[in-house]
UniProtKB/TrEMBL annotation:
It comes from Helicobacter apodemus. Its EC number is 2.4.99.17. The lineage of its organism: Bacteria, Pseudomonadati, Campylobacterota, Epsilonproteobacteria, Campylobacterales. Keywords: Cytoplasm, Glycosyltransferase, Queuosine biosynthesis, S-adenosyl-L-methionine, Transferase. It comes from the Bacteria. Belongs to the QueA family. This is S-adenosylmethionine:tRNA ribosyltransferase-isomerase. InterPro entries: QueA, QueA_dom1, QueA_dom2, QueA_sf. GO terms for biological process: tRNA queuosine(34) biosynthetic process.
Amino acid sequence: MDVLSLRSYDYILPKELIAKYPANPKENAKLLVYNRRDKNIIHSNFWNFANFLPQDTLLVFNDTKVIPARFYGKKVLKDSKISQQGAKIEALFHKELESNSYLLQCKGRLKEGERIAFVGNIIAEIIKDKGMGFKEVRFFEVADGVLKPLKKEKFFAFLEQYGHIPLPPYIKRETKIQDREDYNAVFAKHLGAIAAPTASLHFSEGTFNALTQNFKHTYVTLHIGAGTFMGVSVDNILEHKIHKESFYISQESQQKISEATHITAIGTTATRVVEYFGLTGYGRGECDLFLHLPNKPLLTKALLTNFHLPKTTLLMLVASFVGLEEMQRIYKEAIKEKYRFYSYGDGMLIL
């Protein structure tokens, strides 16, 4: 079995196992516990999560918060007044590029120089076509019929008021107000992600408080981008260029991670930050670490994660902990036992 072949990371998932909503209560989600020492699998749930953890472990949480980054407008007709609008445009905010310049992913045909009108007298102008639906845009507000550059704080206030939580494309339903709560961890703090660190979604306020009272813990921040869902398209996974995501680790967290004898990462993003810090010593920057079998984690000894899409770097990260054949065995077992998959699905603890 070729660990570098993309085909090795493929599997078939029955559609009915894709979770559309989270478990309620959160702790009712199933938990598959895999012990690397004896390759044993235990089927449990999140009510028992703490019972499986080594007492001396340091829990590392990613405290990013998901932006309501998906929003809708209408194309402004050429040579018309702003009030004359055409086709509906769906936009997904990715990141700020520079002052009043942002990267959006847009559904709908748009050329450089064209404009989109949004509620609240907000206008976006396409500055540059970046390809693959990505556009560099500038935002303006209409005041007394005049376009004025939109300040950063007003742009994010606009998203907060009118934006929708950007549920992943495999969740085939409309977003609901409840998703603003469900698609963020109870400890989410720093706004900047457009996808959730989904392993963290399994903890209610009560369970999280119990964990932090009984185990050493710390936080890192990695703002997850849409690239986390992008599949690998090259046959040899080493040729894949992984996406970059901004991260930050406080001095206190750096010290805790450096001194820890055992680390349990709550999610793949926390893992990547911990390992990137271990390799580079950097406490902030752009993380582009690709963990896979030829590039295994060094600091992280245990991982809590959800069940991931086939042919993704997330699945390759899981394989870097357990090996390719064991990863395939675990996923077959999870499908047989009807675990719920992906962002709102069940979880797996690798020890």
